[in-house]
Amino acid sequence: MSAARESEVDNLKQQGNACVKQEKYEEAMFHYTHAIKLDPQNYSLYSNRSFAFLMMRQYHYAMEDALTTIQLKPDWSKGYFRKGEVELRTFRFSEALQSYNKASSLQPNEPRILEAINRASRSLIKDRRADQQIPWLGAGVGIILGVIVVIADYVFTNKPTLTHPLLMALLTMSIAMLGFSIAKGFRYFVKCQRKSLLEPPVDLFPEEKEDLENIDVERNSEREKHPKYSKAQARQRFRKGKS
């Protein structure tokens, strides 16, 4: 790389860093992208752009840049740290903990990485506890509702339907099981929603994109049918035509 291009890349990187400090993450992303086009092997640019994408909540692109950083510089801790940050934001606490531990193995005793490990560990414990407790919380709510139904049937009706204790218990347990199932389903729904955070953005205009590609193909075929000639070639063809 020439000195002029290297200077331009460094200047774009500094502009991006300045935008990050001002929390202008989209503008920073454009500076980093321009710099990457000039120096596509610069791993620090991908790391910085990953952070910009992360703050823009573009988690798919943030993860892609983090993985590219690791691919270009596998012995650099920040690539794994960036990957862990994306995973933590997308509620993949176990994967985030693994990424942070890998970063810590490359850069031991780094306070920022150690704090991230503690944060991911706490989040993982809290998430697993929620998986265990929320369904039983739903069951508890179901028991309360079942008891309310039994009491309401006894107090507010002239002829109670639920007269046998076994029938009362069966109804209460049925509502409790329903509450448990609903809470379990809710946790499953939450997990599915979290997984979608790393999926690539949906292309809202696939037809227009396909039309543009078809236009490009047609233009290329037209160029092949009617190739361009230089002025000298055109004069030579004109002379041949006259003769």
Automatic annotation (TrEMBL):
InterPro entries: TPR-like_helical_dom_sf, TPR_rpt. The chain crosses the membrane at residues 134-156, 162-186. It comes from the Eukaryota. GO terms for cellular component: cytoplasm. Residues 228-243 have a biased composition (Basic residues). Keywords: Cytoplasm, Membrane, Repeat, TPR repeat, Transmembrane, Transmembrane helix. Residues 215-243 are annotated as: Disordered. Signal peptide: none annotated. This is Stress-induced-phosphoprotein. The lineage of its organism: Eukaryota, Metazoa, Ecdysozoa, Arthropoda, Hexapoda.
